[in-house]
Design goal:
Largest sheet: 10 strands, antiparallel, barrel
Strand order of the largest sheet: 1-2-3-4-5-6-7-8-9-10
CATH topology: Lipocalin
Distance between the termini: 14 Å
Number of helices: 2
Length: about 200
């Protein structure tokens, strides 16, 4: 539906706006605690697949979004709410701009995905409408095996943590964005936010 609030990474904004929000795949009623979505080792340990203009063109257009939010990981309490987005592809597919609107939470923001043409690497940035500040640096990633994978690292209670933004289930009329966390160096991932996108 990766991944920077105010000025922290996009992951934190998403957590602040809809901390650990989770949407289900179409037709699914419950979200699993862990996922087996593709996470090629190249994304983490080697050179990512080179990006190319147009990788994000699938997202261009008008969308309705079904959100499911994990309010408390300990109690597995979820929050569900609708959202919507308008996405443009500009500069020959080198830039994708997303305006995300969540009226139910009085929230809006902008996703900015840019391809470094020379390095052939995508970076995902976020702007919270309340601050108007582009979070930097963006989370870098690539498209592999039909999925866009963006991974960042951080610390939690002094221990390393990985966050994954994943675009998958991509068709002409739908796609999914999910955010997951791993505390075992990427061996398993627990969903904290999924957004099921349906084209209007």
């Amino acid at each position: 539906m990766n991944n920077q609030p105010s000025s922290p990474p996009r992951r934190e904004l998403l957590q602040a706006a809809a901390l650990a929000a989770v949407t289900q795949l179409a037709g699914t009623e419950t979200a699993s605690a862990t996922t087996t979505a593709p996470t090629p080792s190249a994304t983490v340990t080697a050179t990512p697949t080179p990006g190319k203009p147009g990788d994000f063109d699938f997202l261009t257009g008008e969308w309705k979004i079904k959100n499911r939010r994990l309010k408390n990981p300990a109690t597995k309490e979820w929050d569900e709410y609708p959202g919507e987005a308008t996405v443009w592809s500009i500069l020959g597919g080198v830039c994708s701009i997303e305006e995300l609107r969540i009226p139910a939470r009085s929230f809006s923001g902008m996703g900015l995905r840019l391809l470094d043409v020379e390095k052939r690497v995508w970076s995902d940035h976020w702007v919270n409408a309340k601050s108007g500040v582009v979070g930097a640096p963006g989370v870098t990633g690539s498209f592999e095996k039909g999925a866009g994978i963006f991974i960042s690292t951080d610390e939690e209670n002094g221990k390393p943590v990985r966050y994954r933004g994943l675009w998958d289930g991509i068709t002409k009329t739908s796609c999914r964005w999910s955010q997951s966390v791993s505390r075992d160096d990427g061996k398993t991932w627990g969903d904290i936010w999924l957004m099921q996108w349906t084209r209007v």
